[in-house]
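Page 47, continued from p. 46.
Same chain as before, 405 aa.
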Amino acid sequence: MKNMIKYQTEDFSKNLSIDIGAKHSFKNYENIKTWCNDEINYLKEIGNVSNSVNTFISNVKNKINRSFTQNRNANFTINDLLAELKTLIEEAYKTHGLISSKSKEGIWLLAQHKANSSLTVGSFTYFKNKKKGGVNNNDSQRDGQFSAYLFDNNIEPNFNTEKEQYRLFYQDIIKQKDEILKELIDIREENKKLNKIIQEQTTKWQTTFETQKTEVQSRFDKEYDRHKSKMKESENFYEKKLAVKNAVTYWSTKAKSHKINSIIFGSVAGLLMIIAVVMVFEYGKYIIGLDLNDANGIGRKILTEKGALQLWVYGFFIISMTLVIWFIRLLVKIFLSNLHLLSDAKERETMIQTYLSFEREENTLKDTDRDLILPSIFRVSANGFIKDDATPNTPINIITKKFTG
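Result:
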């Protein structure tokens, strides 16, 4: 839908502003047409350099006209059109190196063309290449390019004087060219010599390095073999002479274990003895305090009419106390056994450490000494229990022994 064509006769909602080396603002399409015609006339006035008129018409004027008449999306607004025109014009001037008639370059270029039209092509080409980022070394345009260069750097002297100075400077450069070239050739030859020396030195260093590498490798192999032999001897010594070190750790651990067991069983045995004494005392107080007058009371059940304990009560009490005493006696025996084993483990640990300290000193122990020491260290370990341990005497055994004398 050609919804922008109406703006060829109507004013824009806001002005179209562009910056092409000179700032312009247009409020309608007629202003743009007038500006386009002015730019074309300017380009013609400076000689239509590089066919700039056709470049402007095809890349600026015609594209502006198409922007108003081509089909647009329904959501396309005048603001979108103005942004499109701004980009179109500014990019065309930059891309094609066009010169605005109102820019400082354009005004100066027109004045120069009127004064000396032979310089226009070179000056126009300089400004064009500056915008596009190109380079033009055409000798026929050198004077014009140089004049534009002076203007671009805010220099406005007598051009012929500057040109003569430039010519003399150029001649000096030409004279110095051969000298500089000779110096470069000398430097290149010197560089070749230095490269040759460096290559020879590098080869020498590489040969020296390989020789040293071989020597170091040989010394390393010899040292490695020597240390390997020493390690083998040390391993043999450990296996044959110092393997007993493991026994130190074993007996030290065993001593700690027996110490803990002795504390536990000793504490439990002591606690049971205290509980047994307290229970006997409390039981006696309880018996003394029983009431024999109550026919249905507990006193008449466990006591006789004279106040003595009945035989079944005696039997129960004796059996219970026998079991308790036997159990306490067993705990005490285990406690004493752990004390005995703790002492034995500490003794063995001390003997082994003493033996090892002697072994570290050369020529301290003889084979006859080892024959006496080692059997003591590696003697058979006792279990710590007392051999006469037995079950407690039963009441029947006690009565039998009493009557049979």
